[in-house]
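Request: Give me one sample?
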Amino acid sequence: MIRWMLLRHAKSDWADSSLGDKERPLNPRGKKAAWSMGQKLAQNDLIPERILCSTARRTVQTLQGIQQTLSQYSQRGVPEILYFDELYLANPETIARVAQANHGGHSSLMCIGHNPGMELLASGLSAQEIEMKTAHLIVFEKQTEKPADWGNASEMYKGWKMIEDLRGEGEGGQER
């Protein structure tokens, strides 16, 4: 079985109009939500073996908030982390390609990115329309014949089952 976790970054700050989109940091609400997402990952035993993260400042800061919490609340520690420019505002096909090429033989993988790509990918994997707000995590599992078998790119959309739908504290919306 493999597990694919899709996380949209926490709420970013629009106050400094001189910053480009990729350089926008998290606002205070976003920082709190990132920290609480790390806590939820630890509490629900949803810590991935590897994280693939967009290089945008808001995604990196979301990951940093999660890392701080995991170092406090998780016995497993912090997962292996790789950063990819290609995940910045990536479409679903690019996210799937990066995941397929960089799972590193791990059976659990998290991708941290942006909408609309994350939302469209989650909708495609679940075969239903999913709205992903900020600091929103959707977790999928897929039965595989061999552990950590992510298959090829043409198989990336087949056989997934959504098992979790979590939001970071302070980000609104309902949790399941």
